[in-house]
Amino acid sequence: MFMFATLLIGGLMLTGCKKTEPTPTPTPDPEPTATTVSVVYQVVNQYQSLAMSDCFKLNVTYTDANGQEVTESGVTLPWSKTIEVTSPFKAKMQGEFAYNEEELPDQVVYGKRYGIGVYENNAFNVSLTGGFSSISKEKFLELIEAHPDRIQFTTEKDF
Fold this sequence. Notes:
The protein is α+β, with helices and mostly antiparallel strands and 159 residues long. The protein is 16% helix and 47% strand. It has two helices and eleven strands; from the N terminus they run αββββββββββαβ. Strands 1, 6, 8, 9 and 10 form a five-stranded antiparallel β-sheet that branches. It has a four-stranded antiparallel β-sheet with strand order 5-4-7-11, with no helix packed on it. A two-stranded antiparallel ribbon has the order 2-3.
């Protein structure tokens, strides 16, 4: 009986022990692989059947390959700028259309159509935002006075 009790207690001691699982070693996230891409900033002057009145000029600020802001003023449309960057890269572009009130035609076609794209596999991929409207000169001036953001834009994209 003593032998049976000893075996029983010994067996319970062995099976009663909790097995501890080793704590898994976390694997660090790999660093993103740096690649070179061609980033294209683009502002166009046509949308569907409308072409923006040629009295508009573009003042645009964009991020260059070194991450610095570059401003170009009074450029004509369409406008684009291609730069070679190393990813990861945050491209940013903002702009405003400038005009001389005396040069506005009686019927003004205005708006904004812009985007930031990239060349991938020898193909240009860009998604342009915005559209154009056609209104009288007087209505245009009233609208822009009340809503100057109608001729301003900003966008950014990570590569």
